[in-house]
């Protein structure tokens, strides 16, 4: 079982104002806080340095959206579709993705801290050169996700599908993938040093060492 540590959950007030996010799209310094955005579609929008604080997104679909260098703090995405959205170079802190579809979400070069992905479809997500600190991937599908040259600090993969994930140039020291499912991974011998695996998984990794395991 993956090691358990405490992450800081999003801190939202009980009373949130319902707003239309479209209202801020053309402001010079777009900023939203203390609000809920629900049951809507946000499409064809590109905004740099959008700031969102204490916001609940519920049943929202994002289509052709680019929020480069977004600043997310105390934000919950619940039952949302963020497929192919771009949060590249973002600051993502105390954020929860709960039962979301995040296929191809671009988080490359982002700083991600105290973030959880629970019951998400996160295939093909891009975490290239991303720093992840106190992040949990729980019961999620991460097939073909890209973690190239990531920095992991207290990251958990709990009962996830990590088939064909790319961990190239990323140290997995202290990372426990023993509860995860996969048929193949893109890793190097250097990457897997200190990685925690099941006995069954260890047989597969032995081939990287040039070993032949007898049954």
Entry summary:
The protein has 215 residues and is mainly beta. Helices cover 4% and strands 34% of the residues. The chain is elongated, with a radius of gyration of 18 Å.
Explain what the structure shows.
It is a single chain. The chain has one domain (15-207): E3 ubiquitin-protein ligase SopA (Pectate Lyase C-like, 3 Solenoid). The chain contains one helix and eight strands. It has one helix at 199-206; strands at 17-18, 31-46, 51-66, 71-78, 91-98, 111-118, 131-138, 151-158. The model has no long low-confidence stretch (mean pLDDT 92). InterPro entries: 5peptide_repeat, PA_immunity-related. It comes from Lysinibacillus tabacifolii. It holds the Pfam family Pentapeptide_4. This is Pentapeptide repeat-containing protein.
Q: Measured on Cα atoms, how large is the radius of gyration?
A: 18 Å
SSE order in H/E notation?
EEEEEEEEH
Name of the level-1 CATH class:
Mainly Beta
Distance between the termini: 25 Å
Q: Strand count, sense and closure of the main sheet?
A: 8 strands, parallel
Shape: elongated
Number of separate strands: 8
């Amino acid at each position: 079982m993956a090691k358990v540590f405490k992450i800081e959950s999003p801190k939202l007030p009980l009373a949130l104002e319902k707003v239309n996010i479209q209202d801020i799209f053309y402001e010079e310094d777009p900023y939203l806080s203390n609000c809920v955005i629900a049951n809507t579609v946000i499409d064809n929008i590109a905004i740099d340095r959008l700031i969102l604080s204490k916001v609940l997104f519920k049943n929202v679909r994002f289509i052709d959206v680019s929020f480069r260098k977004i600043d997310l703090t105390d934000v919950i995405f619940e039952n949302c579709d963020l497929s192919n959205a771009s949060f590249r170079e973002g600051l993502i802190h105390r954020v929860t993705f709960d039962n979301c579809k995040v296929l191809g979400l671009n988080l490359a070069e982002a700083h991600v801290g105290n973030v959880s992905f629970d019951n998400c479809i996160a295939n093909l997500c891009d975490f290239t050169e991303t720093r992840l600190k106190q992040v949990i991937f729980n019961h999620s599908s991460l097939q073909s996700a890209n973690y190239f040259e990531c920095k992991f600090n207290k990251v958990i993969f709990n009962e996830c599908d990590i088939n064909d994930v790319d961990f190239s140039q990323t140290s997995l020291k202290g990372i426990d993938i023993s509860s995860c499912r996969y048929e193949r991974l893109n890793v190097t011998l250097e990457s897997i040093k200190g990685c925690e695996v099941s006995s069954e998984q260890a047989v597969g990794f032995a081939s990287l060492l040039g070993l032949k395991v007898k049954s």
